[in-house]
Every structure is written in C-alpha cells, then in structure tokens.
Amino acid sequence: MDMDTLFFVFSKMVQFCIEPLNWVIVFVVLSLLFLGLRKTHLCKRFLLLALVDLLLVGWLPTSELFLRALEDATPKVSLTQMSAKDFGGIIILGGAIEGGEIAIDRGEISIGSAAERVTKAFELIRQYPELPFIFSGFSGRLSPKGMSEADAFKRLVAEQGLPDRNAHYENQSRNTYENALMVKPLVLELGTVGTNNAQKPWLLITSASHMYRSLKIFQKQGIEVIPVPVDYQTSNTLRWGRFDLEDGVQNWNKLMHELIGLLAYWITGKI
User: In terms of CATH architecture, what is 84-230?
Assistant: First the structure.
C-alpha cells in the first residue's frame, strides 16, 4: 500500500471518528454498558453528554459561526469584468455526483447536496464553450463500485447537450490532493500562455467551504487558479432561533472535515 492510499484510508477513519452523531452513539452505548454494571452515576453522565452533543449539533449558530468563516476565507471573484481570453480553462472538482452502482442499476445520475458544483459547471461551459474543461474525480469511498464521478459527469454533459469538443475527464483521484496531482499534466498541456509568458489561470469550481483547502493544494502544485466557490451553507446572519439536527449534522461534518483536512495536509506538506 503506497503512502497516498494509506493517507486516504487513514483520513476516512478520522472522518468517521469526528462525525458528531457517531459520538452520540458512543455515549449511548457507554451509558448502557455502565447501566448493566450498575454504575448509574456514570450512566447518567454519558447520557448527559449524548444530550449535550445533540443540542450543540442541532442548534445551528454553533456550526454556522465557524462554517461561515471558512466559506468567507476565499472571497468570490467577479467574472463579469473578465473574458474567456483571461482564463486557461475550467476545473470542476468531484464530490457532488452519486455515481457508483446506483447510476448503473437505475440508469440515472443522482446529484447530491453539493449540486451547485455541477450546475455552475454547466453555466460556465455554456458561457465559455471555447475553453477546455476538466472534471476531476473518481470516488471518495473506501470501496468504490460502479461508475466513477468523472464518467457520470460525462454522461450528464451529453444529456444536457453541452459542447464537449474541449472536454477532459480525470477518473482516478480520490481526494483533493490527488485531484491537483492528476490534473496538473492536463493543465500544463492544455493551458494557454498569456502576454507575460505565464500560464493563464484556470477557473476552479468547488464548494465554498472546500475552496480554501483546494486553493492551497493547487497553489502547492504550481497551478494558478481563480476560485469559483459555490454551494454556500451560511448567510450573512446567524439563525439564532433555529434548531435543526439535519442541517446541523451536515454543517458540522463539512466544518470538521475541512479543519482536519487542513491540519493533515499541512502536517504532510501537501499545502
């Protein structure tokens, strides 16, 4: 097993450990264990921890405060003042498409919660049909089966009748580091040189919460990109009176995934 695969497997293990609802299960199991051992005081403490966990997750300002800061870490660039000649191409990161066995069995491509990555890509492909675009992504699962995200996006492009003469697909990467690593040769091959003999920057489409880490990784690989963040989960004001476990879990998962990812990539020299 090479180091990149080891890193990928370890990252999935860490991700499982940091998901907040998994801790609720751990606390409840421990409380039942101590209840069976007739240690009621410890049972009550772990039940209390489970309750506190649920309250922190469900009360949205606790996650929105930090997630908003992460989404705002990379400001949006206005493309209205720029033209196609200013860009080398478009890079779309995977993470929004449910390929795998479902796409093959059902014959339909499902788009997940980060659907804006796909819709924004369609918008820019239509707006800049002469630009090359690269979709990068295989699967983020430990044991992927069936269709890759790149192949699923290729089918969506065909279904939407989008121009595909400049389409390129990278279907091996499992995380953002591998996205940048495997896209780099294509960028160098396809990218055009500007007036100062430098490679023109590429538009990079990914979720706003994921953009800061993506930007650092691509810059580390020497790929100049213009961020096109989408899939925002927070607004300018916090929802102080809102309690929603579903939204809270998604916010915390995104937040912890990015923070742990930033730390791990910094430690391993990937950013």
Answer: 3-Layer(aba) Sandwich (3.40)
